Amino acid sequence: MAQGKNARSAEAAGSGPGEVEPPVSFEVSAERLTEIVRQLEGGELALEASLKLFEEGVTVARAAQERLEQAERRVEELLGLDAQGAPEKRTIE
Fold first, then answer.
1. DSSP state of 85
2. Which of 31, 46, 51, 60 is the most buried (most CB within 10 A)?
3. Residues 28-82: tens digit of each pLDDT
């Protein structure tokens, strides 16, 4: 039901076919994943509903992982770390 609610919210916000929705925050993704897991573990869903919910969970998890990776890259930029995680040495001019 939350999925339908989200779809209605997107429609109300003017997001239609072909329009790109803004990325969902990591926190919102984590909340949705928690709800999906709760529903799947409840064992009350039909197989098709479970598969559809699982598919949504995979999509949400991938988006959350991407947000984490973006945050990690940003922290590395701010801290000046190289690919191995060692601090970069910079000359001060």
1. S
2. 60
3. 999 999 999 999 999 999 999 999 999 999 999 999 999 999 998 888 777 777 7
Structure tokens at 79: 């801290």
Structure tokens at 42: 């409840």
CA distance 3 to 61: 15
The residue ranges of every structural domain in the chain are 23-79
- Residue 55 vs residues 10, 11, 46, 62, 78: alpha-carbon distances, Å: 19, 21, 14, 11, 35
- Which pTM was predicted? 0.61
Half-sphere exposure of 32 (CA within 13 A, CB side): 24
Phi/psi at 90 (nearest 5 deg)? -125, 140
